[in-house]
Amino acid sequence: MFGIPRYNVWQQEMKGRAELAQAEQNRQIKIEEAKANLEAEKLNAQAEVVRAQGAAEAIKIENGSLTPTYIQYLWVRQQNTSANKVIYIPTEAGLPILEAKSE
User: In angstroms, rounded to a whole number, what is the distance separating the alpha carbons of residues 72 and 91?
Assistant: First the structure.
């Protein structure tokens, strides 16, 4: 009978250590996930900077002016990358065609 209270104390101590280890592991996981998210955001920011530099260089090549032809080219290029979108194009009166069947 006198061994049971010591076992209960030991058991509670082991349970506390296990919970502490689990909490520490969860903390480490959250830290690593936050580091991965930060790294991904830094890489996305770098990609955006490179894209903006490319666009600025393209405009500089065009003598600093956007011609209507170049704007149409950019629009067509963008259309090739975006599939399955409905686009409303204004008519002569400036009103969009509300219903058009795509076949």
Answer: 17
Condensed to tens digits (0 to 9), the pLDDT of residues 7-38 reads 788 889 999 999 999 999 999 999 999 999 99
* Helices (H), ranges, 1-103: 4-61, 68-81
Query: How does DSSP classify residue 96?
Result: B
Placement of tokens 């955001």 in the chain: 41
For the beta carbon of residue 70, count every other beta carbon within 10 angstroms: 13
CB 89 within 8 A of CB 97: yes
- pLDDT tens, residue by residue, 50-93: 999 998 887 787 666 677 777 788 778 877 766 666 666 666 77
What is d(CA 2, CA 42) in angstroms, rounded to the nearest whole number?
62
Whether pTM > 0.70 for this model: the answer is no
> What CA–CA distance (Å, rounded) separates 6 from 39?
50
Rounded-to-integer distance, Cα 72 and Cα 84, Å: 20
| Residue 71, both tokens | 């704007």
